[in-house]
Amino acid sequence: MKINKRSIRKSALAAVITVLIGIASSCTDIWSEQHPGTFYITDGQTVATFLEEYQDEDGNNPFTDFIAILQRAHLWADLKTYGDRTLFAPTNDAIQQYLKERMDLEPDLQKKHYFDNVESLPDSINDSIAKTHICRASVFIKDMNKKENGTLPSSNLLDRYMTYSAIP
What we know:
Helices cover about 40% and strands about 10% of the residues. By secondary structure, it is mainly alpha-helical. Strands 1-2-3 form a 3-stranded antiparallel beta sheet. Strands 4-5 form a two-stranded antiparallel ribbon. Strand 4 and strand 5 form a beta hairpin. The longest helix is centred in the first third of the chain and has 14 residues, at about 5-20. It starts with a helix and ends in a 5-residue tail after the last strand.
């Protein structure tokens, strides 16, 4: 089974725009106002704690599907500890879009009920999704602006370098 890297990159890009989480120093309200949708945390909070407690303007947690993916990939405990890493967390909507695209690309898998929901993902795809979205080091907005080719300075957990682009 081949993973559609373009769809994963699209989801990752959507997630980057939605949430950039780094562990290093504190976040201020001014930062939040200037950079909506980007979160930089420390004040005792881990990435896992942030994901569990985050609520959108409607009071919903938009990361529950990704939390389930991280738990199934056995990476959740790592995100409950402190350390230098950046998580590009896709929202539930981004994950559902990915699942739908996978169903459209591989209709023969519909019979096996793969890609119906997060729980039905094969372990190999679940692990790839989780590891694709975690960068081994803290990545800051200023680091992203330095690179003309749009490649992040650190690799993800699959030892691949992620690329990014701005959506006008």
